[in-house]
Please model this.
Amino acid sequence: MAPSLSLTANAETFPIDGRFRIARGERTHAHVIACTLDDGTHSGHGECVPYAHYDETVDGVIAQLEALASLDAAAPCDELRIELASALPPGAARNAVDCALWDLDAKRSDNRVHTLVCRHPPRPVETALTLSLDTPENMADAARAANKRHLLKMKLGGDDADIARMHAVTANARDARIIVDANESWREDNLIAMMEEAARLHIALVEQPLPVGKDAILGRIPHPVPVCADESAHTSADLDALGGLYDVVNIKLDKTGGLTEALAMRDKARQMGFGVMVGCMVGTSLAMAPAVLLAQDADFIDLDGPLLLARDRKPALHYYGSTVSPPEPALWG
Model:
């Protein structure tokens, strides 16, 4: 009987620095799962963030990982990634194992993942910093505190204060490009007014303004600001239905089920004429590391998860100013 890879999955909790609030609620801690695959000589690591909005829980994801059929320790990792895509659906569990397989492959070959997935040697990339949903006054304070950043993403809540929030942030971060993320909270009856105000304020991108399945109006109105699909876009299979509705798609590894599908989604999105954003859940540097490679040629990058935490895991990615550097081998890849 062929030896199988040893898989371990550990739930970990990292405190958020303050609170993180979006239209659907707020959190004070990030709950992540670290996955390790060991073949007896080398080990590969990955991290995922179960997301309640997608009906995921920490216990549920760990159960998926524990129920995963044995992976042949002698099989090439690229073959195992193909098997994994059939064994687990897109989502957090598959992401953790897929990224661990990429890392294991790099360890076995004494190579770097970037030589396989990047067209050029990876470089530091500019990432957004997210401003949590709050009162206009508090968001103005947060914008002033971040006024040296070149790219900010502000969370909106779908209420009458959203226009005031946009004014508050843009007035206090005049040198930054601004992304607004409504997290499905706008409505058909206020969408056009919100979009027109965003255009007047020179907002760079509006992310997921309407609920999934209630966004057909996006195909019938002008887009004075590009519109990005997040909750509406999980994998490459979703893209065909988004043409004419969205201009940009937000690719997150916890939605796609790992780097393998994320790369396929990026390539298909480009072929279809979509802009590409690479985003994240609130996780540690281990979760961000593969996404930094995916983001090398993205139009918008939002990989600030570790910056929202009170502490990160070590070793960590290096954030400097508005940029994040590619991972070192001691972390991943």
Observations:
- DSSP finds ten helices and 14 strands in the chain.
- The mean pLDDT is 96.
- The chain has two domains: 6-115, 120-324.
- Residues 220 and 245 are 8 Å apart (CA to CA).
